Amino acid sequence: MELELYNSATIAAPGRLLDRSSGWSRVVLPVRFGLFEHPDLGLTLIDTGYGARCYGRGAKKSFGLWLYTQIFRADLQAAGQVQQILADKGKRPEDVQTVIVTHLHADHISELKSFTKARFIGSRQAYDVVSKAGSVRAALGHGSFLELLPPDYASRLDAIEELPTIALPYGLGTGRILVKDQVSIVPLEGHAVGHFGVYWHDRQTLYAVDAHWLLKGLSDREPMFGMSKSVASDVPAAEQSLDLLRGFQAAGGTVILCHDPGGCGFDVR
Ligand SMILES: [Zn+2]
């Protein structure tokens, strides 16, 4: 049941675009994904991180995805690839029963096609907006590459919008029940359409994924700027999500982010 986080790749971003007090030298950020096992959900992933479908040599890619990978260079971590982590545990991709898809950015869905037997927990709204936009506008306008989604994604999608609601503690607002009193979905709009986090009740811990790049961005209390602002689908909504996270932290909750460079208690590799 305990959440494990792995680092699939590193990305190097100019520090000044992440933190106003930082210089321009590049800061190395991880690209995490999560893994846990639960009696109700089975072997479960939270996103997939980056993998060979984005950055492998000879991977078949559209021009748009090729260009994206040229602009946003990532170094894959061989030992942290989702397929490798599963193999190390004696599991195959087909053994994964659930993939929680927090949003449709490439660094979260790169390896989704490996999981041919899984059901997906994700936002129907996100899928509808991105798929209606078509491949080019999805890529340019949403940073989402439809070619990375399995062709039957929509039919295997269990929409978070249809899960029962729950009033969450510590100012987290209305969430959706994934496993009653254990794991809940927390909408964190603004970074991408339908973006959400995953809350562990017993640990009072929220994996807030890409609500911000750095935990320091929460404590600084500055308006969004740089990379956080430029990728956000809805800046005012993203600011509201950050306020919700600050309130949660003030109430004693722990926030984890996908790309924060500091280690967290759930990092395994
Ligand atoms: Zn993202």
Describe it:
The mean pLDDT is 93. The protein is globular. It has helices at residues 52-55, 63-71, 82-88, 106-109, 124-142, 216-220, 226-231, 235-250; strands spanning 4-14, 26-38, 42-46, 74-76, 96-101, 119-122, 157-159, 165-168, 173-179, 183-187, 196-200, 205-207, 254-256. It has a single domain, classed as Ribonuclease Z/Hydroxyacylglutathione hydrolase-like (Metallo-beta-lactamase, Chain A, 4-Layer Sandwich). The protein has a seven-stranded mixed sheet. Strands 8-9-10-11-12-13 form a six-stranded mixed sheet, covered by helices on one side. The chain has 269 residues and is of the alpha/beta class.
What's the count of strands?
A: 13
Count of individual helical segments: 8
Question: What is the CATH architecture term?
Answer: 4-Layer Sandwich
Proportion in helices: 25-40%
**First and last CA, distance:** 18 Å
Q: What is the H level of CATH, i.e. the homologous superfamily? A: Ribonuclease Z/Hydroxyacylglutathione hydrolase-like
Describe the oligomeric state of these chains in a short phrase: single chain
| Arithmetic mean of pLDDT | 93
Cα-based radius of gyration, to the nearest Å: 17 Å
Q: How many structural domains can be distinguished in the coordinates?
A: 1
- CATH C-level class is Alpha Beta
Shape: globular
**Small-molecule components bound:** zinc ion
Biggest sheet features: 7 strands, mixed
Summarize the structure.
The chain has 269 residues and is of the alpha/beta class. Helices cover 26% and strands 27% of the residues.
